[in-house]
Amino acid sequence: MSEKLQKVLARAGLGSRREVESLIQAGRVSVNGAVAKLGDRLDDLNAHIRVDGHSVKISASSEVVCRVLAYNKPEGELCTRSDPEGRRTVFDRLPRLNDARWVSVGRLDANTSGLLLFTTDGELANRLMHPSRQVQREYMVRVFGEVNEQMVRNLVNGVKLEDGEARFEDVQYAGGEGMNHTFYVVITEGRNREVRRLWETQGVTVSRLKRVRYGDLYLSKELPRGGWMELDLKEVNYLREMVEMRPEKETFVTPEAEKRKARSQKIRRAVRRHEERVDSSDTRKSRQSRRGNSASKPQAKGRPGSQQRPGQSSNRQKRGSSKR
Fold it and tell me: How far, CA to CA in Å, does 294 sit from each of 38, 110, 284, 288, 316?
């Protein structure tokens, strides 16, 4: 069964299908010595394929193991494989591969941090990035300037950008002080600087932007800036099924790694439960204190504001009477 050349090369990790198409159009791909053309199909997996003069190993779709990394991108890193000025890129910290390449699922601006996915399956990356899939991306955004309800309604209803209308699927206020305000916003497209441009239409400036969610995958609090973590089989298949691809059957994540991940999740849940109990206890104490302050109670001599139960003398008074 023949497949389009760009699909085969994307699956081999040469890039997304769009990136591979650009390689073919630029005449950088050859098949059995002939320069490939966009639209060529590949019937023989043993064909000799070169990209920029380098041989490329290809495999049938059933032989390729789909791997996905979650990466916590720091501010300042570029979403490119190399930079002429020698600046750090998101690919610099990723684990090395022998027979494949990491393909980024979309991009983040240099000044944007947070969750960025990488996969060895270019077809998966291409489908996840396609606007028709409407995959949700959630960002934590800090803006500088006055923000009112009408401005938020405008952003949810839709505003005109230079490349067409855009909108936030959801906007949630998360607090702020003075002219700085923090929001969580959701978009379903991956246009260039879309979140920043949307806020700029309302006359405010984005001072910090961090992606915290892609689909149902959240940025782990355990993942340090510049750190990566390979997704397990269940998470990989969540992404594949979301874009109508066959489930993967193999994984490079070892049982030991899965156990460590399960233990860390258990610890996080225990910490959250402890914090909730502490918060609940503090709330009860605060309520009791407010009820106590509302009642008329005699004040003990000594520290200002110290209290004692009615009919009971303070320890300081008892110690004083024993000396007399």
Answer: 80, 55, 15, 10, 25
Q: Exposed, middle or buried: residue 130 (CB in 10 Å: 0-12, 13-18, 19+)?
A: middle
Radius of gyration of the chain (CA): 29
Report which of 50, 90, 45, 39 is spatially closest to residue 69, judged by C-alpha positions.
Answer: 90
The structural domains of the chain, ordered by start, are 3-63 (3.10.290.10), 66-133+222-277 (3.30.2350.10), 136-214 (3.30.2350.10)
Is there a catalytic annotation at residue 109?
yes
Whether the full predicted model's pTM is greater than 0.85, yes or no, is no
Query: For residue 166, is pLDDT > 80?
Result: yes
* Buried b or exposed e, range 17-43, using 16+ CB within 10 angstroms: bebbbebbeeeebbbeeeebeeeeebe
Instruction: Write down the catalytic residue from 92, 109, 232, 279.
Output: 109
- 198-244 pLDDT, tens digit each: 999 999 999 999 999 999 999 998 899 999 999 999 999 999 999 99
